[in-house]
């Protein structure tokens, strides 16, 4: 069985890889901005609940309900999701 710290890293890596995969799909399709933000807020909640179950503790982080204007390149929700995962590593 994995140690808790190793399991946490595995979970965070999985969610980050998923974010990149979804981000690549979003870049190549016409997807509404609000849908992308909602999708990544839900993934963020899922990641938090998963880590909570692993740690048996209170939720990590908070949900940010803001949606800046769409910029070319990766969707800002993808970047925000990845940053939150990286912060959770510490």
Secondary structure layout plus pairing:
Elements: H1 4-27, H2 33-55, H3 76-88
Helix pairs in contact: 1-2, 1-3, 2-3
Mean model confidence by pLDDT: 83
Low-confidence stretches: 58-68
Give the SSE string: HHH
Largest sheet composition: none
Round the Cα radius of gyration to an integer and report it: 14 Å
Q: Determine the strand fraction and express it as a percent band.
A: under 5%
Number of strands: 0
| Helix percentage range | 55-70%
Separate helix tally: 3
Overall 3D shape: elongated
* Category by helix and strand content: mainly alpha
Rounded to the nearest angstrom, the distance between the terminal CA atoms is 22 Å
List descriptors.
90 residues; mainly alpha; elongated
């Amino acid at each position: 069985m994995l140690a808790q710290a190793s399991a946490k890293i595995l979970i965070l890596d999985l969610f980050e890889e998923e974010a990149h995969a979804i981000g690549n799909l979003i870049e190549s399709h016409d997807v509404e901005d609000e849908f992308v933000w909602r999708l990544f807020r839900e993934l963020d909640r899922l990641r938090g609940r998963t880590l909570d179950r692993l740690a048996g503790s209170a939720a990590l982080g908070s949900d940010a309900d803001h949606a800046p204007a769409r910029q070319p390149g990766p969707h800002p929700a993808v970047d925000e999701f990845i940053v939150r995962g990286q912060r959770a590593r510490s």
